[in-house]
Structures are given as C-alpha cells and as structure tokens.
What does this fold into?
Amino acid sequence: MKINVVIQSITDFSGDALIVNLFQGIKSPSGATGAVDRALGGMITRLIADREITGKAGEVVVLHDCRKLKAQKVIIVGLGKQSALCPDNIRKAAGAAAQKARDIKAKRVGTVVHGAGIGGVDPARAAQSLVEGTCLALYSFTEYKKPDNTHEIKTFSLVEKDKSKTTQFNEGAMLGKILADSQNIARDLINEPANNLTPAQLLKRVKKIIKDSGVEKTVKCQCLDKKMIQNLGMGALLAVAQGSIHEPKFIVLRVKRAQKPLVCLIGKTVTFDSGGISIKPSTGMGSMKGDMAGGAVAIGTTIALAKSGSKVNLMTLIPAVENMPSGSAYRPGDVVRAMNGKTIEIVSTDAEGRLTLADAIVYAQKNGAQVVIDIATLTGGCVVALGTSIAGLMGNQQQMINKLIGTSKKTAEQFWQLPLYDEYQKLIESDVADLKNSGGRAASTITAGLFLQSFVDKAKWLHIDVAGKELTDKKSFYTPTGGTGFGVRTLYEFLSDL
It folds into this structure.
C-alpha cells in the first residue's frame, strides 16, 4: 500500500472512499467533515439529528450517495469525546475506518488526519498514529493460504489543504509506516508455525528481513553456533536446547551509529516450548509457537531503529532454542553452570526462558553493555496477575522504569511495575547450587525477575514479562487475531530517547 500526503481540499479528493471523522456529541460538524457535509447538502447533519451517526469511538458509517463529491463513498468514523482524544484513539479510529474501506473494496482511499485540526494533537504525532492504526489494522498472516488481493487498498492518501502541515504530516506518516511495518514483522514471526521456524530457520529469516528492509548497511548480523556457545560456557542455554534435534543459534545484531553507551536488547526466543520433561498440558500447547515473541519484538524494534536513523548504539541478542522432551533432554534435579560460573539447580524444565536469558545477560555485559533490557513471555503468573493487556516490568533503576512507563502512555502498550522484593530471594535458594530455576507458583513473576537479576552485574537493567500479550484470539480496532507484536512501538520510543 502506497501512503502519501495530498495538499488539496477534502472535497476535491477523487477516489473510491473518503474518510472523515466526528466527535461524540457534535450536532453540526465543522472543519473537513463540515465541508463534506455542506457538499452533500447537510446529509451528515441530518443523520446526526436522526441518531444514525453518534460519533462514538470506533463507530463507522458509510455514505453511498455521494454524487456531489469526487469520491465515490464517504466513511465517517467516530472519535469519541473530544476531551478524551489521544494518539491511541486516533489509531483506533484509523484502524476501524481502514478495515471498513477494505471491506467495501476501496482501492484508492483518502483521509483527513484525525486530531490534527480542532482535536489539538501535534500534526506529526497525529499523522504517525493514523498510519500506525491503518497499517496495523490491515495486517493479515497469509503465508499458508491464498491472500484475497481483491480487497487490498492500493493508495492511501492523507488529505490536507494547509500546506504548512506538509512536512509534519510526511515525517509522521513515514515514522508511522516504519513502526507499523516493524510490528508486523514481529507478528509474522510469532504467527509462523514452529516446524517452519526452528532456530536455524529463524536465522535465515532474520537475514532476509534485514535485506528486505533495506538496512543491510546498518544492521550487522552474527551468529554463534553450538560449538561457539559451548566454548563461551553458556551451560544454562545449552541445557534448554539439548532435548531438541534442532541446535541452538545465538544471534547477535548490531546497530552502531554513535559512540553512546552500548544498549543491549534481549528477546527470549524459545521457538517452541513443550515444557521439556516437565511437559505442558496438550490443551493450548500449539500457542507455544509464540514463546519466541520476545525475540520477535526485539527483531522488529531493531529494524525500526535502523530504518528511522536512530542514533542508539544497540546490540540485540536472540538466544534461539527449542525446548523438547527426549532422551537427551535436561531433567528436573540437574545442575547446570551459566556463563558467569553460577550453578543452577533445575526444578522445572518448563522454567526454561530464564536460563537462556541468564547467559544472554552475562554475554551482553561481557561485551560492554551498560544498559540491558530483556523482553520475554516468561511466566504464566504474569497472566494471572496482570491479564492479557498489561506487561510486567521490573528493574534495578527506578528512573528507567519511570521513563518506560511514561513512554508507554504514548503508545498505549500498558506496563505495570512489580517489586523485586528481597525477601522472595529465599524462594530461589538451592541446597545444592547457587540458585534454583523456579521458586514455585507463589510470586512466580517476581521470583523469575529476581533470578535474572542475579546475573546482572553493573548494568542498568529492565525486565519485561509479556506473557499473555504475545497472541490474541480477539480482534480489536487495529489488532487482528494471532501475534500482536506487543512492545515494538514502546521499545522504539524508549530506546530512541534513551
């Protein structure tokens, strides 16, 4: 889909569909919607009076008799109450309108930039949110079925008569497209079935994504194979991988544009998690293809930072493994040694992600990382505590935690800080090793965070638990079912400002 900015009167746009908006409670529209209303002889005003259009957030109404306009149809989308307008309401409205435009088979679509007029939203941010909502809403995973290209929007135009907003609209639209495309990259990886996304296949996909995204000169990709991982002493990671016929791949991505403190982003990447010997119930196990969502989000974020020209000095680590039961699998009761020499008693082979992350955290610090951020589908306890919309957040630096939570208010990806309560450290104490890999069900999300903190030396560190947020079975305004890519936009904004 081609996205452009067109400087012209909204009533002069020629295409299959024209999108305008309406605030809830408005009796007579103004601005661009008012201009369309006048061109249609007050049709929108009459529909408001008849309560056929209310302006309720996400409401979509299609006008078909638009012979006095150059556009064939008009789509009116509700923005909700003007006092509550925010970037995410713009995303939602844009997503709802885009899906309707696709449903009515519109090929050429024009739209006002929601919120950039009387809404009072910064024009660049409004355009960014509009394009994000549109591109995210139109996403579909069609790798294994024939896509319906007959419903594909070919051209999507941001229509504005004020030339002074052109630069801001172009910049916002470009960034919105980058972020939506990067989040959709993460969605693609999460949706991919595990038989076609083993660690080795993921490496190939990462290289292809870098090439297709046009960032080959910016993003450098290196991979440590099993022998190299063994030589580095990553016994925790290797233990998780040893039950699978698919060997681990420790993928390292580097984006280096400025001599700033090295930031490391680590994504948990268990390409399939059966639970190992501590095998999971069969019901719902298919969703464990999404246990690499942390890695998918880290990859998507890296691509976004590279494409946007961010000056962050970034290292991204993707410790890719498959956790399977077999005669060679690690067992409850085993003791393994991590890269920093610490020994770990295995209580559950289904507490595997923290083992891979522990070695990755040590590797990051040994390679100069001053800031380490890990994102992982780590604990079922996080779903119990925070549900499927809020991620758990922990760390050793309150200023960074506050900054990430503040950033998330712009992106509408919700985070909640959990306490790394020292008293709970005793839950992961072991009689035979330095640590246990599980402290049991009680406070499981916090004890997992404390486990990871045990491998942090001097770096500033954040841990994000996105369990339950990686996949959804319910459609929303700009999130289809399947992989969500939760975290890409927040991490992009956070790392860009770091």
